[in-house]
Specification:
By secondary structure, the protein is α/β, with parallel strands linked by helices. It has a single domain, classed as Rossmann fold (3-Layer(aba) Sandwich), CATH 3.40.50. Helices cover 32% and strands 13% of the residues. The protein contains eight helices and ten strands. It has a seven-stranded mixed sheet with strand order 3-2-1-6-7-8-9. A three-stranded antiparallel sheet has the order 5-4-10, with no helix packed on it. Helix 7 packs across helix 8. The protein is globular. The chain starts with a helix and ends in a 30-residue tail after the last strand.
Length: 288
């Protein structure tokens, strides 16, 4: 633990809490002194995670109160679900990686801005406003942001764009600053996802469900099918988004837009449940 204390002196540390398996494990570990204490764990709520994820958030908040865990901040300043539903009625423009066809019938994906605008910026704004109390445009002091990426997905490690930010990857045993300088962290024990799940079982903690917006276009057919069968309210809200974004001409997209890669309305898709591979990845901070 002496390494931990020296590592953290004079620098604020936050956990980017996606409420998935890895980042939630970081929260528990920080609260249990198995890794450095963080100032706060920040969850950016985009407006429509799964019911299971919201239920787990309630569980985690109760656990925090009962076990004196570190503070959990829930950011709700931006609502992607609302902005997509009402995109044609003057709401904030929101770009998700939905599918559309060009004039030749080739399927492509729209530009993705949702993770940056609704996840990363919300966490960054909380750091500026609530931790440091700085005005807009002011540079934040150097800050550690812990991200729950494990060894099996090490390729998701990224260099922060902001000069003040240091991305810390406890499960990789590394951290990286905005100049691309990578350092090993002496106090970590690198883990893959399976090892993290084993850790939950050893601690007697419930394993969180996979975290993502219910309308995320990156879902596999298997995930869509399970959502439709097991979480009909979640699926119905995804269908509402799918219908709302169909006509996106005001956003400069002149062909119909769909959540499913088949470019068929989500309510009509016959899902191939054998297809379990996700169709993309939002970023290192979206699902973890």
């Amino acid at each position: 633990m002496e390494h931990v204390k020296k590592e953290m002196v004079g620098m604020v540390t936050v956990i980017s809490l996606g409420l998935g398996i890895q980042s939630t494990a970081l929260y528990y570990m920080a609260s249990m002194n198995e890794m450095p204490k963080a100032t706060v764990a920040i969850f950016s709520d985009t407006g429509r995670e799964s019911r299971a994820t919201y239920d787990y958030l309630n569980y985690l908040q109760n656990w925090q109160q009962q076990n004196k865990g570190i503070k959990i901040a829930v950011c709700t300043e931006k609502n992607l679900y609302h902005d997509l539903l009402y995109s044609g009625q003057g709401s904030r423009f929101a770009s998700i990686p939905a599918f559309t066809k060009n004039e030749n019938g080739k399927v492509g994906m729209l530009k993705r801005q949702c993770t940056g605008d609704y996840k990363i910026k919300s966490v960054d704004n909380y750091i500026r406003d609530e931790i440091y109390g700085l005005p807009k445009g002011a540079r934040r002091p150097v800050t550690n942001v812990c991200i729950g990426i494990t060894l099996d997905e090490a390729e998701r490690m990224s260099i922060p764009r902001e000069r003040w930010k240091v991305n810390v990857y406890p499960f990789l045993g590394m951290k990286v600053d905005s100049y691309g300088n990578v350092e090993r962290i002496p106090w970590t024990v690198p883990m893959d996802r399976a090892a993290v799940i084993k850790w939950y079982h050893q601690k007697g903690l419930p394993v969180p469900p996979k975290s993502s917006c219910v309308f995320c276009p990156y879902q596999s057919d298997h995930t869509w099918a399970m959502r439709k069968a097991q979480a009909p309210e979640d699926f119905a809200d995804a269908v509402s988004v799918d219908e709302a974004i169909r006509n996106s001409t005001r956003q400069g997209v002149h062909n119909p837009v769909y959540l499913h890669r088949s470019c068929i309305p989500l309510s009509e898709v016959q899902f191939d449940q054998s297809q379990k591979v996700e169709w993309g990845e939002c970023s290192g901070t979206c699902h973890t």
